[in-house]
Amino acid sequence: MLRISLRDGEKVVVNGAVMRAVGRTEIVVENKVSVMRGREVMAPEEATTPARQLYFHTMMAYVDPAGGEGHQDRILEALRQVMAVLATPEAATHALSFGQHVAQLQFYKALRDCRQLMQVEAALLEEQGSASAEEKQGAPSSGLDAAA
C-alpha cells in the first residue's frame, strides 16, 4: 500500500492520467500503478541535455508501459549519449545502477539514477561554463590546450 499526501493544487500522474488535488488530499494506492508527483514530471521541451533526455524517455517508459519497446530503444540511445559526454567514474556508477534498474523494468528506481546523472551533468556544464568564461577574460587555462 502506498499513501500519498498532496497539497492543494498539486498534481500527480497515475498510469498516465494527470490529477490535481483540490484542498489537502490523501490518496491510498492499494495495487500496482505508475505514480509520479507533478514535480517529478518533465515536459518534452525540458529534455535539453543528454541526461535530461534519458530522464524523459525513462519517465515515459514508466507512465506508458504499453509503449515499452519503443521507449527502451530511446532509453538505450539516450544512455549512449550520456556516457559519451559524462565519462567520469561517478557517472559510470550511476549508469550501471540505471541499467540494472531498466533491465528489471524498475523505471521509477531508474529515474532516481537519472536525477543523479543530471546532477553530474549540471556540475560538468557549470565547470565548462566557468572555464570558458575564464578563457574569455584572459585567465590561464587548465593547461589542457597548452600542448596545442
From TrEMBL:
<keyword id="KW-1005">Bacterial flagellum biogenesis</keyword>
<dbReference type="InterPro" id="IPR009967">
    <property type="entry name" value="Flagellum_FlbT"/>
</dbReference>
<keyword id="KW-0694">RNA-binding</keyword>
<keyword id="KW-0282">Flagellum</keyword>
<keyword id="KW-0969">Cilium</keyword>
<keyword id="KW-0966">Cell projection</keyword>
<protein>
    <submittedName>
        <fullName>Flagellar biosynthesis repressor FlbT</fullName>
    </submittedName>
</protein>
<keyword id="KW-0678">Repressor</keyword>
<feature type="region of interest" description="Disordered">
    <location>
        <begin position="128"/>
        <end position="148"/>
    </location>
</feature>
<dbReference type="Pfam" id="PF07378">
    <property type="entry name" value="FlbT"/>
</dbReference>
